[in-house]
Amino acid sequence: MRHLDETTTLTTTRVWRHADYALLSYIDAYGNITRYHYAPEGYLEKTQYHADTPDATISHRRLEDDFCQNRLITLTLTDIQGNRIISQVDGFGRLHRRDYQCQQHPLFSLPIEQRKYDSLGRLSRLITHDHADEEGAFRPLATRYHDVAWDQWGRHYASVDHDGEQGVCHYHHLDIIKQKSRRQSRSYRHRSQRANTVPHYSGILYERYRCGKPRRQLRLLPQPEDDKALIISELRLEYDHQYRLNAVQERQIGQAIRWRYNEDDRVEQQTLQDGSLLHYGYPSPGDGPTSIDFSAASTAPLQKLYRYDTDHWGRRTAVREGGSPAAVSIGYPSLSPLPNHYQDADGDITQFFSSHPPQLDPAKLGRWLSRMSVR
User: Per its UniProt entry, which superkingdom is the organism in (predicted)?
Assistant: First the structure.
């Protein structure tokens, strides 16, 4: 490792592909280099790491050119000693299998993890394998299973953790409560109207568990109601007349988190469990929050947590923490969405250098920023 003293200038270098801002290489302050290689189709094909140390290691990730969604893709991680982690992923990005291959035994693979999915693509079983390394020989230690069950509405209903013989089952049950319709008034941006709101629903989410039973009985048992079916938590979910979640209450301790919305259906205020409030400020209906104010109670004065400024492209240009007038300023080269320098509250500047200043069409940049904006 390089020796660095207080007078050493730390420099990092990033090289971007001009067309789509794909990162090509990165050099950190210690001289370590990371290079990214892309396939003609645009996806990341291989990553190379070159460490500037005596124990330099190089890891590769290789994607086979078969990206069909009904076939498996092989991803291989290889260290300098020749040991490999081989993963099999389908075209939707779901992991199906992960194996370990030792350099001393290249034809022998140890299973690490296996995943199975149902016909709808949901996880149905997760299998993990533990192995022991004794004098260069691997032997299996334990195999753990995690089974998942879904109800007819597509919600996670139960999960069973077991060793193949017996285990623990967790049940997640949701009781739906129909609320009476009521007459409410709500003002809108362009008009006000008074209408009968439709009936809305709230629910109580129970989480229970049962243990000490054979695995087969755990999977076939209905929701338990006896003494061994202990209630871990009960959450009451409340929705308003527009089906927006406005409260989550833990029934055993009586604490709740509540939300209040503005006329544009954006979260305007959040009430935490201790009664403190968070207020969100928006510059316009389509933008994300540019300020968050905090108060310790409903009657306490507001304290600014942070506030940031944006330009007309939606890029952050300054960030202020608390009520301090000092801010961290962010600068951009021309129309680039990537910053080229930061200046903190003490005046220290962090500069980014680019050998190819981007030349972007303003219309394309606007569409890019709209996709990247925080909602």
Answer: Bacteria
Residue 272 or residue 217, greater confidence? 272
**C-alpha dihedral over 365, 367, 372, 375, to 10 degrees?**
140
Measure the CA–CA gap between 110 and 139, rounded to whole angstroms.
9
Give, rounded to a whole angstrom, the gap between the first and last alpha carbons of the chain. Answer: 43
The rounded distance, in Å, linking the Cα atoms of 342 and 202 is 47
Which uninterrupted H or E stretch holds 317? strand 316-321
Cα–Cα distances (Å) from 368 to 14, 38, 335, 372, in that order, read 21, 21, 12, 6
SS3 369: helix
Q: From CA 39, how far away is CA 37, in angstroms rounded?
A: 7
What contacts 87, CB < 8 A, 6 or more positions away? 74, 75, 76, 77, 95, 97, 98, 99
Q: How far apart are CA 253 and CA 360, in angstroms?
A: 55
How far is Cα 205 from Cα 238, in angstroms, rounded to an integer?
11
Instruction: Give the per-residue pLDDT at 107.
Output: 77
Q: Look at phi and psi of residue 182 and say left if phi exceeds 0, alpha if psi is from -120 to 50, else beta.
A: beta
The 10s digit of each residue's pLDDT in 114-123 is 999 887 788 8
CA–CA gap between residue 141 and residue 110 (Å, rounded): 12
Tokens of 332: 């951009």
3-state helix, strand, coil in the chain (%, to 5): 5, 50, 45
**pLDDT tens digits, residue range 15-69?**
887 666 788 888 877 677 888 888 777 777 777 767 655 444 444 333 333 334 4
* Cβ atoms 349, 343 nearer than 8 A: yes
Give me the pLDDT at residue 354, please.
Answer: 53
The helices-and-strands tally (H runs, E runs) of the chain is 2, 27
111 band by pLDDT with thresholds 50, 70 and 90: very high
Amino acid at 341: H
Q: What is the pLDDT at residue 113?
A: 95
SS3 363: helix
